[in-house]
Design goal:
InterPro entries: Beta-gal/glucu_dom_sf (IPR036156), Galactose-bd-like_sf (IPR008979), GH (IPR017853), GH2_Domain-Containing (IPR051913), Glyco_hydro_2_cat (IPR006103), Glyco_hydro_2_N (IPR006104), Ig-like_fold (IPR013783), Ig-like_GH2 (IPR006102). Belongs to the glycosyl hydrolase 2 family. This is Glycoside hydrolase family 2 TIM barrel-domain containing protein. It comes from Sphingobacterium ginsenosidimutans. Keywords: Glycosidase, Hydrolase, Signal. By secondary structure, the chain is α+β, with helices and mostly antiparallel strands. Helices cover 16% and strands 34% of the residues. It is built from 14 helices and 54 strands. The chain has an eight-stranded parallel sheet with strand order 31-30-29-28-27-37-35-32. Strands 3, 4, 9, 11, 12, 13 and 15 form a seven-stranded antiparallel sheet that branches. Strands 1, 2, 5, 10, 14 and 16 form a six-stranded antiparallel sheet that branches. The relative contact order is 0.08.
Amino acid sequence: MHRYLILLLALLQSYCVLAVGGHQLNLAGQWSVQLDPEDMGVKNGWTNRSFTTPIKLPGTTDDAGLGAANSLTPALTKPQLSHLTRKHRYVGAAWYSKELFIPKGWAGKEMILKLERIIWESNVWVDGVEIPQKQRSLVGSHEFDLSSFLKVGKKHRLTIRIDNRKKLAISVDDMAHAYTDHTQIMWNGMIGSMYIEAMDRVHIKQVSTFPILTAKRVDLRVVLSNKTQGNTGSTLRVRAKFKGDSKYLPTIEKEVLLAPGDSTIQLSYDLGAKIRSWSEFSPNLYDVEVVCQSGEGVNVMSTSFGMRELSREGTVMKINGLPLFLRGTLECSIFPLTGHPPMDKAGWKKVFLTAKEWGLNHLRFHSWCPPEAAFAVADEMGFYLQVELPIWENNAGKDDAVLRFLYEEADKMIRQYGNHPSFCFWSMGNELSGDFDALNALVKNLKEKDRRHLYTATSFTFQQGHGIVGEPFDDFLITQWTAKGWVRGQGVFNSEPPVFNKNYSASLDGVSIPVVTHEIGQYAVYPNLAEIKKYTGVLKPLNFIAVAEDLKRKGLLHKAKAYTMSSGKLAAILYKEELERALKTPGISGYQLLDLHDFPGQGTALVGLLDAFWDSKNILSAAEFRQFCAPVVPLLQFSKAIYTNDEVFEGILDISNYGVAALSDQLVEWSMKDGTKTVAKGHFQTVVGQGYNGNAGRFEVPLQAIQQAKKLTVHINLKGTSYENHWNIWVYPKENQIDFADVSYTRELDEALRLLQAGKKVLLNPDWKKITGIEGKFVPVFWSPVHFPKQAGTMGLLCDPKHPVFADFPTEGHTDWQWWDLQIKSTTMLMDQIKGGETLVEMIDNFANNRKLASLFEGAVGNGKLMVASFDLATDLDQRPVAKQMLQSILTYMKSSKFGPKVIENPEVLQKILQYKELQEKAAPGAIY
């Protein structure tokens, strides 16, 4: 008998049949697979065959190493720099086969095959007979009714054909994140749960929950399926409890008579007087259990929900009646080890825990819908999710087949994910253009079906006449500009001198609904080459490797870490002002960063302070980021970053309070510090209501006591809380006297060379408007120098702040606001051909070029000593205190004994580096001046 049981167990295991609760056959495990790139499977009889190649499912052909092996080598060319590279790539049909055994206890049951997530299209055969239910979906499960094809107590062969080729025009250049090789990959396979579920002929098919917060009840929509031939009497019982409690609230009961087919029953369940609401501060969940008892048996379905209500009052977004501000970033299905999203809660916990640690409360799922596990974790942690239909198209609404597909996908999203309280916002897609009448009709249709979410027709649009005030059925507007101007800093930070008392209120004139700013940031950070070793999965970082090899060839690899840190510090400075300017604007209800973490596609867009694995690059800490990204943020209005010591610093305090409660009689402490030394301090009391609090207090600091150039830091602290913030300003002596002494100043190279031959110290400051080189900019590369190659693609400066040339010019080793004027009024010099000398202010080149760049350079020529500055140190110095201070600091250094530059071995190259543009334009090809 014992031997017989062992043999039986082995037989069952060979069919990989695992019962879950007695009602499911788990299909996870070993399958066989055959690729079918030429679509010959049906013709060759693959519908009822075992294949020779084994594959483990859930999984993908990439996991199994199937498909075309990567043959690319690292290079700074577009294929390699476009995105991470699949080690094995397959796009086409693939056949999966497995034997299974149906338990005898399933006689008379309805048997449904459920495959949680597949890319595009699936067909199913049982014993060679096709199930006439071809499925297409990118957002939810593929389901097949196998009831008429499976016999109990019998072995069957299940064959599934999956085709991951593009079926509909849903994406510009295949960049929509539901179907792309830029972030998640165009994988073939099955991921997530996969099983056959057995159900009684009368069973619960769907339970939808509709919380009514003000009424303290939840309305239920229960869909019952009756597969018998006649009317069937059933009893519905409903009970609910707060999640975590052992005791249920009272049960309600309803008798129903079900006709054959599907019936929808409406019920209301009173949760009692002491309900607990759901939000980021109190992610309270309830469980509801619905029991259907009929002559066919007892069927139970449970779901969870949260008591929350989203609304808007004019331009203010609200949750549970309180003001809501979305502190969000994008989630673009970036999971570099697998090339697809996690399908379990453990895989999503790192994402949400990290986002929460960095002060966020919101994730936008750009042009895709996450799986069930993501919603479940967001529910538990109190995150507000924006979900989108799988489309990013310029002809949205104009293709009937695509439009039908979107309606089908939307219905599936409502059925499968609609109960989740974290499913808060719904956009029809990313940056859509096309037929807005069709898009608006889609929004109207969804709002009539499901009012649990707030809706918008598109996450921004470039189509003229749209995207500036909101569409007719929009609950909120996602945009980067309106008819009156920008609502994100990318449009102003390079063109306007740095000021810190501006917001976007003028741009919101005429907008009557809440605004969420679209994809703010996109400030590129130099690749972190230490990240290469992390890529142990299906994707190879040829983009990172190519950069590393190029730096090594050019002798720059030792600078890679400094490039990452310095460019990252600049990005962090800009992100801070981006976020604070949005927080200072009444009428803005949130921002969506692009991005807190890296986007390794679309030309390697490394725009994050975290890498693609949601790990910190250590550019700044999460605690530092939370100073300006938190439920409560102290904000400061001041007119500029640069002062002279005859001025008075004036600070106006704002407080953004989207926390759990108002702060009454809040003590606010402020101070101005020179390092650890306090220059001035004070405090005041204020009442901090919920929402935006403008002009909550003010203070002044005369700066006459600052006799030397200083960087000062203004600190704001809300006493008794963890909320604090700080800002840097720079103060320079007003009466600086420029004394050239023995330093010869010239703007002409020829004159500089003559003076050098005479053994002079020479400050060469050519007219930056005339020389060749790279346009000076303050902001770094936008998004990616590969995706957007026609931009002045530098990534901030790198310098040694301890070098004596900066003794009178306080600076960090990276760009900060005091460099704005110098960088805007400059042309960056290309120094690749120079031998010797030393770069004092290096501009970090973008990673697609990795040239040696400089804006301040020194070297010895003959008996002379040369300093070359390619930023403007000549014009309007009385109105440009930064330039004047830099000039003084350079001269002080050049006049000192510390000025002993290294020899420039090929000074003739300076003639090419500093040639005038008009000479370059007139020069014949190959001519060198």
